[in-house]
């Protein structure tokens, strides 16, 4: 893990006291990026510095106006090594006296700006001077939330949604998730004013979720309906708000309409005698095009009942969750329902307890190198839920299992609530999942459905070692900044690259290990299942998804096609994909 320090040299009382007094805004931004406070004195305590160090000098400038950024934290880091760091002065300059020689990562963090990370090569025998680092000031969207009569709506939660392509689907995601963790979300004040900060330059939809009215357990009441900028009642009717780096977009006011006189009543039942859902937590989500947004949540009554008042007409999902602390068991259930004016909807949600999954992991022709001297080998199996869908079940420890086998077979046991999952296996080294069977019936890909009554037969997961290898070289951008040009800017290196293999057409399912790090212009990926793939050399901070069909066609010329055969090595020569910054934001829309 990479560590930074947050110490304000302009405050008295030493580095530690200043660290404690750093502004909340700066602390939340740095903490969200995994940055922590260091020891006094600007240098981290810990292992001795590398044998050879040099002086590193440069400036931090604003990417919009080129003006100096004062008080920015600049740190040189490497895995398993402590960082050396400094703060910028009034003119944006910094000096790191004991910068280690070699290839490292340099990071810049400043309140109100994006977090910057770049690779750097620090030469031996002489100071490194003239290192200019540009950071972008974050964007801000601000406005008011008003009711039908123009009065301020207090305490409403406001979100900036951005459309992203994740795991094969377009999704609307709240881009303030980091700030939400530290501030409890962005909410309107007593004037109905909201201010969303820390945004990247992009296009957003402003969504408002009004506060829930006070009520008894089992009741959700709303005085106003959820809304979108400027006065839309659904995502499809919302206007887009575009912001550039450093821009503060003002006057983005949202007017909410009065909640309609609708009602729905339901009950959460737990038919399993092993667990009781009285009371339990229920959540309500609204389906709006490609978006699934939470409306509200509350506990049911002691009898498991709930009532909903003031929901706009539309499609919804009721989700019930329960975790029994005494037994460690959980229950989960969800039920779609529709809200219409003039009709009371009845909703019945069954919260089902976990089901046992028993199976075997079978190795096909394992090599002699698998296992210890006694022939015992180990592997890990896990069920992956769709964690990008807020209405799905949450990951628990019971969805992981360690397999210890002898020879070519090893048993495993898992537990999971009924639902849809992806079954994944890791190890032994060099193996991949060739297929999954339930009672002799092959399952498509790695998908596994746990039905209402559980899986009655054995789950047999087969792993094969009949793999191939893909290796090759990666060329930097021909029309962008070349390696030489970047090295001329004080030792900065091109963005770190990772080559990913994506199945072509109906090829093998994607595997998290089908990637390799680019080092000194070359890469190698071993244990690749036979099949046809497309290969891309991805920068670490691309700013877009290669899986997005809107971008895939435009970026096809950077990729390479390869057919992998068992026991053979395929060679590729790839051109590096650009970052969004290099490509140009408009070029990817």
Can you give keywords for this protein?
589 residues, mainly beta, six-stranded antiparallel β-sheet, 6 helices, 42 strands, 6% helix, flat, disordered N terminus
Give the helices and strands, then pairings:
Layout: H1 14-21, H2 24-32, E1 53-62, E2 73-78, E3 81-87, E4 93-100, E5 102-109, E6 116-122, E7 128-135, E8 139-146, E9 157-166, E10 169-174, H3 177-183, E11 186-187, E12 193-199, E13 202-209, E14 219-221, E15 227-228, E16 241-243, E17 248-249, E18 254-255, E19 263-269, E20 281-288, E21 291-299, E22 305-309, E23 314-323, E24 330-339, E25 345-350, E26 352-353, E27 355-364, E28 376-384, E29 400-406, E30 409-416, E31 419-426, E32 432-438, E33 441-443, E34 447-450, E35 459-464, E36 468-475, H4 483-487, E37 497-503, E38 515-517, E39 522-528, E40 531-539, H5 549-552, E41 560-564, E42 569-575, H6 580-583
Provide a quick synopsis of the model.
The protein contains six helices and 42 strands. The longest helix has 9 residues, at 24-32. The chain is flat and about 75 Å long.
> How would you describe the shape?
flat
| Helical content class | under 10%
Biggest sheet features: 6 strands, antiparallel
Number of strands: 42
- Count every helix, treating DSSP H or I runs of 4 or more residues as helices: 6
The low-confidence runs, each spanning 5 or more residues with pLDDT under 50, are 1-46, 179-183, 479-488
């Amino acid at each position: 893990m990479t560590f930074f320090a947050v110490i304000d040299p302009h405050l008295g009382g030493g580095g530690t006291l200043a660290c404690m007094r750093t502004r909340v805004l700066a602390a939340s931004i740095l903490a969200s990026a995994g940055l922590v406070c260091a020891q006094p004195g600007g240098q981290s305590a810990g292992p001795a510095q590398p044998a050879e160090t040099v002086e590193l000098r440069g400036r931090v400038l604003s990417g919009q106006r080129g003006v100096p950024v004062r008080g920015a934290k600049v740190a040189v880091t490497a895995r398993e090594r402590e960082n050396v760091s400094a703060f910028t002065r009034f003119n944006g300059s910094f000096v790191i006296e004991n910068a280690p020689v070699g290839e490292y990562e340099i990071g810049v963090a400043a309140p109100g700006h994006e977090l910057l990370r770049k690779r750097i090569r620090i030469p031996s025998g002489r100071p490194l001077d003239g290192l200019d680092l540009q950071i972008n000031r974050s964007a801000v969207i601000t406005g008011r939330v008003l009711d039908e009569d123009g009065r301020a709506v207090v305490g409403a939660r406001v979100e900036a949604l951005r459309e992203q392509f994740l795991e094969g689907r377009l999704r609307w995601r709240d881009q303030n998730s980091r700030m939400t963790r530290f501030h409890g979300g962005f909410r309107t004040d007593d004037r109905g004013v909201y201010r969303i900060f820390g945004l990247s330059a992009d296009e957003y939809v402003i969504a408002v979720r009004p506060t829930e009215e006070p009520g008894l357990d089992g009741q959700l009441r709303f005085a106003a309906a959820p809304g979108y900028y400027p006065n839309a009642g659904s995502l499809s009717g919302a206007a887009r708000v575009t912001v550039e780096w450093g821009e503060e977009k003002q006057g983005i006011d949202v007017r909410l309409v009065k909640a309609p006189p609708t009602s729905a009543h339901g009950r959460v039942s737990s038919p399993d005698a092993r667990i009781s859902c009285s009371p339990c937590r229920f959540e309500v989500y609204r389906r709006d095009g490609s978006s699934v947004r939470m409306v509200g949540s509350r506990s049911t009554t002691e009898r498991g009942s709930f009532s909903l008042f003031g929901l706009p007409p539309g499609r919804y999902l009721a989700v019930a969750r329960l975790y029994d602390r005494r037994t460690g068991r959980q229950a989960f259930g969800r039920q779609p329902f529709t809200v219409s004016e003039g009709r009371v909807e009845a909703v019945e949600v069954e919260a089902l307890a976990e089901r046992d999954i028993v199976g075997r992991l079978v190795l096909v022709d394992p090599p002699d190198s698998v296992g210890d001297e006694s022939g015992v080998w180990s592997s890990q199996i896990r069920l992956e839920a769709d964690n990008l869908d807020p209405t799905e079940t949450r990951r628990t420890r019971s969805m992981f299992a360690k397999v210890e086998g002898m020879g070519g077979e090893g048993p495993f046991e898992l537990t999971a609530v009924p639902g849809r999952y992806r079954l994944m296996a890791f190890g032994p080294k060099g193996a991949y999942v060739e297929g999954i069977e339930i009672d002799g019936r092959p399952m498509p890909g790695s998908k596994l459905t746990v039905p209402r009554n559980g899986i009655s037969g054995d789950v047999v997961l087969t792993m094969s070692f009949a793999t191939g290898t893909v290796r090759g070289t990666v060329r930097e951008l021909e029309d962008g900044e070349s390696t030489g040009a970047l090295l001329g800017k004080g030792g900065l290196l091109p963005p770190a690259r990772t080559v990913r293999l994506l199945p072509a057409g109906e090829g093998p399912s994607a595997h998290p290990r089908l990637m390799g790090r680019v080092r000194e212009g070359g890469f190698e990926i071993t244990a690749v299942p036979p099949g046809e793939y497309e290969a891309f050399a991805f920068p670490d901070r691309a700013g877009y998804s290669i899986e997005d069909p809107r971008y895939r066609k435009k970026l096809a010329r950077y990729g390479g096609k390869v057919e992998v055969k068992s026991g053979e090595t395929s060679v590729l020569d790839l051109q590096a994909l650009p970052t969004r910054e290099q490509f140009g934001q408009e070029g990817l829309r």
